[in-house]
Amino acid sequence: MIKKSMGLLALSVVLMTTSCKKESAADKISADDEAAIAIQNSLRTVFPKIKFDKLVHDFGVINEGDVVKTTFMVTNEGTVDLIISDAKGSCGCTVPEPPNEPIKPGASAPILVSFDSKGKPGAQMKTVTLVTNTETGMETLEIKAKVTPKTGILTTKK
Q1: Three-class SS string for the chain?
Q2: How confident is the model at residue 32 (pLDDT cuts 50, 70, 90)?
Q3: Residues 133, 43: Cα–Cα separation, whole Å
Q4: For residues 126 and 90, what is the distance between their CA atoms, to the nearest angstrom?
Q5: Rounded mean pLDDT, 17-24
Q6: What predicted TM-score, i.e. pTM, was given to this entire model?
Q7: Euclidean distance between the first and final Cα of the chain, in Å?
Q8: Which residue, among 75, 147, 68, has the nearest Cα to 106 in the 3D structure?
Q9: Mean of the per-residue pLDDT values for the chain?
């Protein structure tokens, strides 16, 4: 009886392992799906290559209250569109104006940066941070100035 039970048990195990084939997620992926995934993965490694005509602009000596401007030229040396999705100055006195449209491969576009020196006497160094679709995702530009303080009439209390 034990031999018969062992035989039935062995037969049951064999039937269960061969009749219930589990389908894995990999078995459900077709050749077309694999090709689409390969294309998506290759696109993730293709980034625009950004190049600037300068990374730093020094306005030199300016007077307090002056609003000065400069242009940074950006060129897309990559093979896909360059997108600047955001641009922020390190303070409210520094205002960048990036291009609104994507920059095509081989094309260039200006980024205008203005600096308002009102209330900013002395040596100044400000940054502009660009959020891009480059590999690093961020680029930084810098402006500098030596702001001559406003001279006013000094009054003394008696």
Answers
A1: CHHHHHHHHHHHHHHHHHHCCCCCHHHHCCHHHHHHHHHHHHHHCCCCCEEECCCEEEEEEEECCCEEEEEEEEEECCCCCECEEEEEECCCCEEEECCCCCECCCCEEEEEEEEECCCCCEEEEEEEEEEECCCCCEEEEEEEEEEECCCCCCCCCC
A2: confident
A3: 12
A4: 6
A5: 56
A6: 0.69
A7: 122
A8: 75
A9: 85
> β-strands 56-63, 138-148: how paired?
parallel
Could you tell me which residues come within 8 angstroms of residue 115 by beta carbon, excluding any fewer than 6 positions away? 59, 67, 68, 69, 93, 94, 95, 124, 126, 143, 145
- Distance of alpha carbon 72 from alpha carbon 53, whole angstroms: 6
Question: Which structure tokens are listed for 147?
Answer: 């702001």
CA 63 distance to own-chain centroid: 35
Unique residue bearing structure tokens 């269960």: 16
The pLDDT assigned to 16 comes to: 61
Q: What is the pLDDT at residue 155? A: 46
pLDDT digits (tens, 9 = 90+) for 88-126: 999 999 999 999 999 999 999 999 999 999 999 999 999
Please give the torsion angle defined by the CA atoms of residues 85, 91, 94 and 99, in that order, rounded to the nearest 10 degrees: 0
Alpha-carbon distance 85 to 67, whole Å? 25
